[in-house]
Amino acid sequence: MPTSPPSASSPTAPLEFASVFARLSPHVKALDACLREQIQAFEPEVREMADYCIDTSGKRIRPALVFLSGWQDDAVSPALVKVAAVIELVHLATLVHDDIMDEAGLRRGRDTAVKSFGPEAAVLLGDALFAHALHLAAQFPTTAVCSAVGESTRRVCAGEIIQTMRRGTTAITREDYYRVIDLKTAELFRVSCHLGSQLGGYDDDFVAAATIYGRQLGIAYQIFDDLADFFGEEGKIGKTLGTDLVSGKLTLPLLELADALKPTERAALMSEITGQAATNMELRLRQLRELDIFDRVNEALESQLRKGERAIGAFAALPAVPRLLSLAEVLRAQVKLLQP
């Protein structure tokens, strides 16, 4: 039986984030060098724009999943570095497009690409990042990497399309919500663990289990991100808050809030979602706290994490597993920091 992961209530839990990524420092350094090399492949006129996106790439959670799922020892694997770069480029492209659609001005403490370069240039920059990711994936000796990344890129875009088409509508169920986040967020987590464990030399059984873990962690991560949109502090998380409500996205916190409100209050919230009424952010933030929406959403997040942990529990003796499990603890620690 696998060893139980550390309790999320442990006083050392917030330190897990630093310790996990400190162990990956040589891998991340190699990834940074690889990404810098890719900038030179872009036309001179857009290199500065591509460089700007890479500078704002954040915690590199998806590359970390590649490295940890393929972990055998401390050695840096060139194959894992390259596939991590591919997935990070796809992720960066999605961020550029997300910020255009959300009209977000801030991401990770810096102006977004759309604010810096304008929407027309930004959307084409996102396209260029997508295209170069697939070009880099095609350089592997097997077509399996390019095929997996191409499929995942299509699925991520499909998730964004579905979400975009449903903006400003209220006929959205929890099943609809989970379908969208499975595509637009969990997909890159899933393929990171799939390709990482595969290129790391693990057998098919563990590859399948790691793939499930990545997917469940990705769903949980998006739920966390949706929580942070209302319960975070803009100065700390480095992004514009409240964009989901303003842009008409009915996320899990808002679905839970709608269920908890009286009919007349629920109707008023739905009017804000559809754009028929001005957003009353102060009221909604107060209601989210007074009605204990955080705990309800966190329970759903925990359910996803536990599913992922069960998937790789039988492989506890493998060097990749305790490192993958540590990411679930990292997420729990981050959620705890949001708790009202």
UniProtKB/TrEMBL annotation:
Its cofactor is Mg(2+). The keyword Lipoprotein does not apply. InterPro entries: Isoprenoid_synthase_dom_sf (IPR008949), Polyprenyl_synt (IPR000092), Polyprenyl_synt_CS (IPR033749). GO terms for biological process: isoprenoid biosynthetic process. The keyword Transferase applies. Keywords: Magnesium, Metal-binding, Transferase. Gene3D superfamilies: Farnesyl Diphosphate Synthase. Belongs to the FPP/GGPP synthase family. It comes from Synoicihabitans lomoniglobus. Pfam families: polyprenyl_synt (PF00348). This is Polyprenyl synthetase family protein.
